[in-house]
Amino acid sequence: MPVMSGFEVLSAMRVVPEWSEIPVVVLTATMGYSADHLQADALLEKPFDSNAVQGAVGAAIAAKAKRRRLH
C-alpha cells in the first residue's frame, strides 16, 4: 500500500474505537501468520480465489457479530 503497511492499518484500527467494529480479512503472501496472531477476523494466504475471499468475508462478519453478542 502506498502510504501505510497492512500492519500499520491494523494497529490504527485497534486504536480508534469506532474502527474496532470493522471486520478485517488479511490477504497475505507471507506464511506463518494466523488471524488470531494478527487480531484479524480471517486470513487468506496468496494465491487465493474468489470463493475463498467470499468465505473469508462471511467468516469475518460472523466472527465480529459473535464477539458483539458476547460483550
Task: Give the topology, please.
Elements: H1 6-15, E1 25-28, H2 35-38, E2 42-45, H3 50-70
Parallel strand pairs: 1-2
Q: What spatial order of strands do you see in the largest sheet?
A: 1-2
Structural class: mainly alpha
**3D shape:** globular
Percent of residues in β-strands:
5-15%
* pLDDT < 50 runs, ≥5 residues: none
- The number of distinct structural domains comes to 1
Kindly state the percentage of residues in helix. Answer: 40-55%
Folded structure, characterized:
This protein has 71 residues and is mainly alpha-helical. It has one domain (6-70). It contains 3 helices and 2 strands; from the N terminus they run αβαβα. The protein has a two-stranded parallel sheet with strand order 1-2. α2 links the parallel β1 and β2 (42-45). The longest helix is centred in the C-terminal third of the chain and has 21 residues, at 50-70.
Summarize the structure.
With 71 residues, the protein is mainly alpha-helical.
Give structural attributes:
single chain, 71 residues, mainly alpha, 3 helices
